[in-house]
Amino acid sequence: MIKSQTIGPVLVLAVEAPRLDAALAVRFREEMLQHLAEEPGRVVFDFSGVTFLDSSGLGALVSVVKRVNHHCKPVLCGLQPAVRTMFALTRMDKVLQVRGTVDEAVASLAAE
Amino acid sequence: MPPSDDRPAPEAAFLLAVASDLENVRLLAEAACRALAPVLSDEDLIKVEIGLVEAANNVVLHACRGRGEHSIRLSCLLRDRTVTLLLEDDGVPPDGDLNRGGAPADGTAIDGAAVLCDGTDDAALPDGMAECGRGLWLIRQCFSSVHFDSQDGINRVWLRFDRGA
Known about the structure:
The complex is a heterodimer.
Chain A: E1 2-7, E2 10-15, E3 19-20, H1 25-35, E4 43-46, E5 52-53, H2 55-68, E6 75-77, H3 81-90, H4 92-95, E7 97-99, H5 102-110
Parallel strand pairs in A: 2-4, 3-5, 4-6, 6-7
Antiparallel strand pairs in A: 1-2
Helix pairs in contact in A: 1-2
Chain B: E1 13-19, H1 22-36, H2 42-63, E2 71-79, E3 82-89, E4 114-117, H3 135-142, E5 145-151, E6 154-162
Antiparallel strand pairs in B: 1-2, 2-3, 3-6, 4-5, 5-6
Helix pairs in contact in B: 1-2, 2-3
């Protein structure tokens, strides 16, 4: 479900699950935390492969962010329309850092 | 594309029945989106899908206790500018007196259904870093009104969406 790659100093985790919902939320959280176990300092979560996110998926994402907050502040990118709507409704776009593309997200972290 | 008011609106359409499993909520959402795509804008369709998925998740997790041994039915009614989705399940009725509310205004539900929200709800959004607790809040945000009733072993939730509201 998670594909990882490193771009310069940034770890990019691409979520490859078209529907990140209650049926997948637990597995998503576990896989993300496995990829983040080595505590990378700069991380991008690429959501371009996610076309729908429900509150369980959002809760799992928040859980992941809270678990890694002590060593990094992930930047999200690639939000599709339904995911953007979920972020807007829940105001997560004000809580989490969101960029348009992987390149923009990586650039924002590389500049830090 | 915005919805066209020139299209004939069917009185009612049964969409799907599935076993009460979280994996099947996706099937309900996809059936609703297919049925409503010709009459809802993309933006409205997203809100309906989000609200329906949250409501169906609640049915599976609470009324059906997360087990797949119950069934969930989804129907859709179109009337003028109102879309009403009806979720029915044969799971456990909720505790309390949810079935003592008022009847829904559009007449698509039976008398005595409880009003879970009527568009005047001002419940607070859960904390941004909360890991749960957004489901019911989202249902209230996505629909104009929500009614609930439980009779004769069937729980029913009516989710009303006013197009272009």
